[in-house]
Amino acid sequence: MNKKYDLIIFDWDGTLMDSVDKIVRCMRAAAADVGVADPGIAASRHIIGLGLTEAMQALFPTLNAGQHARLTQAYREHFLHKDQTHMPLFPGVDDGLRLLGRQDYLLAVATGKARRGLDRVLEETAMGSLFSATRCADEAYSKPHPRMLEDILDATGVAPQRALMVGDTTYDMQMAQNAGVAGLAVSYGVHTRDDLLRHGALACLDTFDEVCAWIR
């Protein structure tokens, strides 16, 4: 098989896992706990993909560092312990990733999640062994900074032109461009098809099965 890419790097939330509703619920609950204005559904969806610190700064720009810290702690408490919203993998993700692995693609994750959160879902989904490298926003700069991708490229020894970033946000596409990596978008996440294509996505696909077919 003549492969164009050796390494496929996936965003997690909104790309592999249908976790958007839970993230939005937890963000709004955190605001209520701290007693600040509800950011609303649309704004809470739009910041998914950023690191938590950057997300709080974007959603609540007039608050001080202490208030951001309280919001962050409240959000984590809801996400890890209080909120029980189901977070399934999107259809085709489990089988698709395993098929790509059998076809000798290296797989990786670059996510705005914290390490604790990613390790938890990797364990719950039994998917940790599928990935050669993972990088989180609390280990590097938040998207769209290229550091997470640069770290993954260093860890796997793959050149940028042989890697592909798959994500659902403009932050993913900008990060890919900043790292010299190609970007492929999915339409079923949080940012619009037009925005994703405008930010450099090679294509914007509607299902994970289409993603796998496009890669192969």
- In round numbers, the mean pLDDT is 96
Radius of gyration: 17 Å
* Strands in their spatial order, largest beta sheet: 3-2-1-4-5-6
Given the C-alpha coordinates, what overall shape results? Answer: globular
**Strand portion, in percent?**
5-15%
CATH homolog superfamily of the largest domain: HAD superfamily/HAD-like
The largest sheet is: 6 strands, parallel
Put simply, the count of helices is 10
Distance between the termini: 9 Å
* Residue runs with pLDDT of under 50 for 5 or more positions: none
Under the CATH scheme, which class of the largest domain? Alpha Beta
Number of β-strand runs: 6
Question: Would you list the SSEs in sequence order as H and E?
Answer: EHHHHHEHEHEHEHEH
Instruction: Please estimate the helix content.
Output: 40-55%
The secondary-structure class comes to alpha/beta
Question: What can you tell me about this protein's structure?
Answer:
The protein folds into 2 domains: 7-18 and 89-215, Rossmann fold; 20-82. It has 10 helices and 6 strands; from the N terminus they run βαααααβαβαβαβαβα. It has helices at 20-34, 41-46, 52-59, 65-82, 93-102, 115-125, 147-156, 170-179, 193-198, 208-215, and strands spanning 7-10, 106-111, 133-136, 163-167, 182-186, 204-205. The longest helix has 18 residues, at 65-82. The mean pLDDT is 96. InterPro entries: HAD-like_hydrolase_sf, HAD-like_sf, HAD-SF_hydro_IA, HAD_2, HAD_sf, PGP-like_dom2. It comes from Candidatus Muproteobacteria bacterium RBG_19FT_COMBO_61_10. It holds the Pfam family HAD_2. One of its GO terms (molecular function) is phosphoglycolate phosphatase activity.
